[in-house]
Recover the amino acids of this structure.
């Protein structure tokens, strides 16, 4: 049977694109080798947020006397939290399946391999069956990177070390957890396990945590973690894993971090191996499919969206990339603006950001400046955060007074950042931000305060 479109991968990019394609009257076939929803729904975004919300409630309970509330000793049942996480995931996966069925998308559970191209279209094989389509959208996502550090792969195999997939199924709380990598996944899991009682140590090879996050923000986040008891070793190069610990080099000396469990979270790599890209000549770079902002690859009729292109490994980016690809397939010109994609670290406090940072404007030589303001200019923030040290930072173009970036650390940051992303997307000027009527009292109105604070 000939389809209009075959999509390989049922994660955020794939299943959302499939719905949009079906809405556009394209006869669509979707392949998924593991579970609908991909890494985000099954092993990433949703499971981690479920755990982190339980930890946040527990943190509130432990510190409730600071707000005049006392109800005895608080406790957390990690095994129950994992059960609830599984229930949440099952519910949402079922929802994705129902939506695809309602849209008329045909779904095949199985690994797909591209065999080649014929006059009829692209041929894809799954099991002992072959399928053809006029267009092909590749959304095979990414997987945790497990480098060749001595003992690491063996430790993952025997369960001593884990990736994000395994740690989200662990029902016992490790007394000592060593996290290799101070990026988003590592920090979120460090936050959770620190909250529920583990002694957590984070080993990061860079001289700062949170990767490309604005340095002022990441420094505040690290201080908050340190107050809670998380230990950081920055500039640490891991050299071996196994025998109950992690060996690393720091300042020319060899050190060992004792651990009951190890989380390896040093990044992700695109899933492009074994899907037959070489059979149709799709161009890759460092393992990721090369795409234009439209989603096009170098092969006419072949598109890619989501983590597999390595451009912005975020679920919401994947949604947008999939939509852009479908729009272009349907004849509507569209492209992704990668300069205004927000990012969030769902720790407590939350971190959210969009656009240029203090560091990036210097690296790019932009005529722009950074302006920070304490979150304590928000009455609601003060009312709800005893001793909070959150800030909002605006990056502003000096010539036009347009907003190039917004960065926040504090409560509700994840829910506020979309508005800031719109400001960056539309290159909004400070005078326009000042004219907005923000609801009061809210934390988001601190953005307006920051706009007025810039002279």
């Amino acid at each position: 049977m000939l389809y209009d479109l075959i999509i390989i991968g049922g994660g955020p990019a794939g299943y959302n694109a499939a719905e949009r394609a079906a809405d556009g009257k394209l006869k669509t076939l979707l392949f998924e080798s593991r579970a609908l929803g991909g890494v985000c729904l099954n092993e990433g975004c949703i499971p981690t947020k479920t755990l982190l919300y339980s930890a946040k409630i527990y943190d509130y309970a432990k510190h409730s006397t600071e707000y005049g509330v006392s109800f005895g000793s608080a406790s957390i049942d990690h095994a129950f939290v994992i059960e609830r996480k599984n229930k949440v995931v099952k519910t949402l996966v079922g929802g994705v399946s129902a939506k695809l069925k309602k849209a008329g998308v045909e779904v095949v559970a199985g690994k797909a391999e591209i065999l080649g191209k014929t006059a009829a279209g692209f041929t894809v094989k799954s099991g002992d069956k072959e399928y053809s389509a006029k267009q092909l959208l590749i959304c095979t996502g990414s997987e945790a990177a497990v480098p060749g550090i001595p003992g690491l792969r063996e430790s993952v195999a025997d369960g001593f070390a884990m990736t994000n997939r395994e740690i989200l199924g662990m029902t016992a709380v490790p007394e000592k957890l060593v996290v290799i990598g101070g990026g988003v996944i590592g920090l979120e899991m460090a936050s959770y396990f620190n909250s529920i009682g583990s002694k957590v140590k984070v080993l990061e090879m860079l001289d700062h945590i949170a990767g490309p996050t604005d340095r002022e923000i990441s420094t505040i986040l690290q201080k908050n973690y340190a107050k809670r008891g998380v230990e950081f070793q920055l500039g640490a190069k891991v050299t071996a894993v196994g025998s109950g610990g992690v060996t690393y080099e720091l300042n020319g000396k060899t050190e060992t971090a004792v651990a009951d469990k190890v989380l390896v979270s040093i990044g992700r790599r695109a899933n492009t191996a074994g899907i037959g890209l070489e059979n149709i000549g799709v161009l890759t770079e460092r393992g990721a499919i090369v795409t234009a902002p439209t989603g096009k690859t170098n092969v006419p009729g072949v598109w890619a969206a989501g983590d597999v292109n390595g451009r912005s490994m975020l679920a919401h980016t994947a949604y947008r990339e999939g939509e852009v690809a479908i729009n272009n397939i349907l004849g509507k010109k569209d492209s992704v603006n990668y300069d205004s994609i927000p990012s969030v670290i769902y720790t407590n406090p939350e971190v959210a950001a969009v656009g240029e940072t203090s560091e990036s404007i210097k690296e790019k030589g932009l005529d722009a400046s950074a302006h920070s303001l304490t979150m304590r200019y928000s009455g609601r923030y003060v009312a709800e955060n005893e001793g909070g040290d959150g800030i909002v930072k605006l990056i502003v173009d000096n010539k036009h007074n347009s907003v190039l970036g917004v960065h926040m650390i504090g409560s509700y940051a994840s829910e506020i950042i979309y508005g800031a992303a719109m400001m960056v997307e539309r290159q909004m000027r400070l005078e326009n931000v000042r004219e907005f009527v923000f609801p009061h009292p809210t934390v988001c109105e601190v953005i307006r305060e920051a706009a007025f604070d810039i002279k």
